[in-house]
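Hey L., structure's done. Input below.
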Amino acid sequence: MAEAVVSFLVERVGDFIIQEGRSLSGVRDQVERAHTDLLFIKGFLKDADAKRRDSEAIRIFVAKIRDAAYDLEDVIEAFVLKVDSKRKGGIKNVLKRLGCIFVELVRRHKIGSEIGVITITISDLKQNLQTYGIKEIRDSSTSLQLCEGQQLLRRTYTHVIDRNVVGLEDSVHELVGHLVKEEHRHRVVSIIGMGGSGKTTIAKQVYHHKEVTDHFDCLAWVCISQQYQVRDVLERIYVKLLCPTKEERDEIAKLKDDEIPGRLSRLQNERKCLIVLDDIWKRETWDFLKAAFECDEDSKSRILLTTRNEQVASHADENGFHHRPPPLTESESWKLFEKIAMSGRKAGIDAEVYTKMEELGKEMVHHCRGLPLAVIVLAGLLARKNTIKDWVTIRENVGVYISRGFGRQEEEHAYVSWVLALSYEDLPYHLKPCFLYLGHFPEDYEINVKILTKLWIAEGFISLTKQRQSSGETMEDVAYNWLNELVERCVIQVAERSSTFENIKTCRMHDLLRDLCLWKAEEENFLQLVKGSHKNEAMHPVSSSSSMGKIRRLAIYLDENDDKLVPSREERGGQLRSLLYFGPNDYNWFPKRKELIPSMFKDFKLLRALMIEGMNDGEVKIELPREIGNMVHLKFLSLRRSNIKSFPPFLGNLICLQTLDFCVADNDMFIPNVICKMNKLRHLYLPWSYRARGNLRKLSIRLSSSQSKNLEKILDAAGCVLNGIRSLRLYNDVGMESGAEVSQIVARCGQIYKLKLFGPTLELPKEFHSYSNLTKLLLSPCALKDDQMAVLEKLPNLKSLDLWGNVFEENTKVLVFSAGSFPRLQFLTLVNLKGITEWRVEEGAMPCLCKLVIGNCSGLSTVPDGLRHLTTLKELKTEGMPKRFCSKLEEGGEDFHKVQHIPSLIIQHPID
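Output:
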């Protein structure tokens, strides 16, 4: 991980040199020298990471390198900010505090001196590399350098049949069917899952299944894993398929490298072959091997592969069958555990002791969450424990016991450690800090993806190359893609997807992977989890082991009785970058004593991310302390749902903010005109109104009678912002008389991607039909004029349309989707359109529609005849519709012919 930290910090420092060259005047040579030294050191860190496991000296040395790299980034950023603030007239409050420009120059000189000291430190560390026997390892085709013993540990053998197989019967049956039955024509069948989910075990059961051995003429199993030689892999497959004599084997050994793929390909055309490729990690591996698997379309040969990475499976065959083994049920987990840990005990011990062991065992098995390997490890550990006291001790530390083997090969359950750790080690360096950052969040926490990616950006994990910038890709796009890669690598799980099923809304971590994450985060001093304290005791990290280096990130899990909300500066140091609070409840919480609140905002001069959400007891109004205005490096600030008294003007000092979530409990708050100072702002969430300038992406506005008078001023102040808005939610609380103002605001948002309008709108802007970026639109009771449908249906790239309530004026009775309308629409929702009595869909309308939802539209008596022409429609769902309407859709009903081509018809909660 030290290599990962230094790699992304080297990239960050390089960006500073390129982008902030002018601001680095006077220290540029020192920064470039330090950057060059770090680039040199980076080449040695793979070897250092591997050796520090067995050497305390190397562990300390690596920690020094990591801290020096962090310190360099901190001090460069501080220097650039000082120079920029001076060039732009300074940060008002900062200059007041300093008193005069002379003092400001002295401080700049001091920071420059600090850069010099850190540069010397890095240079000294570079010189000492040889002292520790650390060697340079250049990047190669393999991402890990594993010792031969570890590689043998990972290698699988087909003749080793797992005796402890439980709960896999359905998976085996399904896979066998896809391999042998004629109706299934998949060339490649893939088993996908995280380490320990039973992929290899299932593949072995399939490989030895009677239907499989009877169906195929010849079979071959080969374990690919991380280190492999293409020639060796293909030769082993060829030998296993042919079962050659010694003379034939000698002849095969003499073949040239480029001859074997052709011979393998011909063999698969001539005979029915099953080839199992176990544990493929990368798409490149398939690319190296695929020439040997090129076959005729009518070939009966099949490939079964196992992988942790869904991208590998899709890359091998985009039309192939993908199987993800489900977790074991509670009863299956217990049966597996019982076979290993309880076998033979009943006859040899007291019945009462056995019953107690059974009770404790079931409690611990629940912790394994159906992961077969976790159950096996736990059972193997307990199989050697013969007293209730031993079982109770392990029950109290079950999470630790499952993860304690990480990095310790001599432990009896080290195999689990390597399976989980290898999934982490295989991550490219840019994904490792993103993965470790997930450790901030509590166990079983459903993590909001948009918040997570914004935190990654604030930390500087996401860097845009010139190529990406020129293609129009944003940092948010890159962050989401990286998150998706973590999902595909099976190290995080999707919890919830968006309504269109295209994007991930929330994610979570499996407990065992969270154990791995926290262990790695502690080892790298990446993150400290802190539990609150009672009776004025010092706050303490969750881990009992002392950390090496400076604390950079804190996640604080508070208790209702806490007497302290943050560790003192002496306990945590002054280099904190990230501070996230999690209350004792899922929603709102409040400290025991109000006077503790200011401590949450003090002495954090380098902080980049601060999240204090839901601090609200429903009574006490929190006044933000002035100290928050000194956190000038802050890039992410969220006070969502907290009961904040006011928006203080000194928040305007936070000129580096990218995300400000001030969607606080008080929805009727005056917002001073200071947001325009935050020229790096990308995401702004406010209770009612706003004034802003910069790269704002998302906005929520509520029009009230008091604000409508000043709308022109507000729009003029924010004109340059609105044109860059990607997501807008607009509420009209005034009524019909403000419909024109709604149209005015929307007219300024020509680049918008997502729009939600609530309340009277009357008319859309004249240019609305040409909003080419708009993909998602929600209208709720907008009272649009009849002719506005002609504007909506011309939107060229709209994918999702929600029409709720009285979208059109009261006298509108017929809704018409004309031929050629909504050319890209995929998702349509009609809810509470009570005034509409007839809906027509002309042939050629909505040619891409996939899902249609109709709810509580009591005026409709039938679905449009035009649904027959929607050949792409996969799902029709009705909810709260009259029973007569619903009965027409069922088989034999008068409207069944309109919907019989739709694969999924869901009728929910019909009404009389």
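The longest strand covers residues 273-280. The chain is about 40% helix and 15% strand.

-- N.
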